[in-house]
Fold this protein.
Amino acid sequence: MWVLVLVWGAGVSGCSPGSGSPASSPPIDPLLQPAQITPLTHASSTPGLPPPHSRRELSFRYGAHTIFLDEIIAPVVAEGGFDTVVQVFPWRDLHPEPDRYDWDPADYMVRMAHAQHLDLVVRLDMPPAWAILPEEYSHDGIPFDLSAYADFVAAVAERYRGYILGYIIWNEPNLAAEWSRSGGDANQHWESFDGWVARPDDYVYVLCVAYERIRAADPDALVVAAGMAPTNEMSPRAIDDREFLRGMYAAGAKECFDVLSVHDYGYGLSPEVPRELYDGLNLARILDVRDIMLSYGDDRPVWITELGYTIQPGMHPYVTEENQAAYLVGALRRVRREWPWVEMFTVWNLCYGLPLDSEMAGFSLVAPDLTPRLAYQVLQEEMKR
C-alpha cells in the first residue's frame, strides 16, 4: 500500500522499539491449520539457524503483514491464528554497501518465524543509495542497478533456502514513489513525489531476472509478482493497477511468476459493496484483476498480501474500531465464500510501538501498547472455525 512499510534501517523508526537487538523467543504452541507435510529437497546449513521445518501445503493461508518480526510480535501473530507472515527484507538494510551484507536482522526474523512455526513470505525492494542509478542513465527506465538487485535476490534465496515460502519481487511499481524511490511517507507518495512510474515491460524484465535467480537458488520457493496499489489514476505519479497488469501480461509476465499478489483494500467501505460502486475502489476490485488474468489464460492462484482498514484519520478513509473488526471478518468470509482462487488472506498490519496518530498504527490489529484491538479478537475466533 502507499503508506510506507517502515523497517529497521538506520534513521528510521520501526514498528517495534529496539527491534535491532536480536533476542531469543520462548517457544509457544502455535495455532495451526491441518497441513499436508511435504519433504524439502534441500536443508539449509546457514550458520546460526535451526534446520528448516518441512514445508506445509495449505489450501488457504491466514497471513499477517508485520513491520519487524521480533520476539514480541511473533507470538502475537501465532496466537492470533495466523500461519503465514509477510515481511519486508529491505535491500538497503541487508546490503548496505556493494561488498558487504548484514544478515543479522533477517537471520533474527527467520528464527522468530521458525520458533512460532510461521511460514514466511518476504518482499525484496527498497534499494540502497549505492545501487540507485543517476537519473540521466535511468530516466523512464529501471532506476536501480538491476544486476546488483539480481545478486541481492540470489543471495537472499541462497541463504534462506528452505525457510522462505515465497519471494515478492518489488512493491507497487505502478506508483512513482515505489518504483523510483521505494520508500517515503504518505506525503512523499502523493504530494511531493518525484521519479516516474514503471513501464510494465521494465517491471516484467526485473521480475523475470529475479525469477531465474530464485529458481536456481531456491527451487522449492514461490516467486510472487508484486501487488499493485489500487488506483484509477493515470498520471506521472500513478497508473491504474488494471492497466498496469494488462501491460505486464502483454510483456510476457506469465512465464515469470508462480503467484500473483494483490493489495485489496476496502477504502472504509463494507466488504459486501458491489464491484461497480465507488469507481471500483472497494474490496471487489479484485474481480477486475481476476478477469484480466483469465483473459490471458492464467488461472493460477492469487494471494492477497495487503488488506486492511485504518481507525486513524489521515489520507486513507478511516472507520471505527467496531467497523474495522466487522469489515475484516466480513472480508475474510467473502473471500472464502466467493473467491476460491484466492489462497492467502493477509491483514495489513500487525505492529506496535508507533505513535497513536500514526496511520500505520491505525491499521494494526493491536494498539501501540500491544493491547489487542477488537479486530484481532474477532479474527482470532473466525480463523478457528
Summary: Residues 56-384 form a domain with the TIM Barrel fold (CATH 3.20.20.80). The first helix runs from residue 73 to 79. Residues 1-14, 16-44 have pLDDT under 50 and may be disordered.
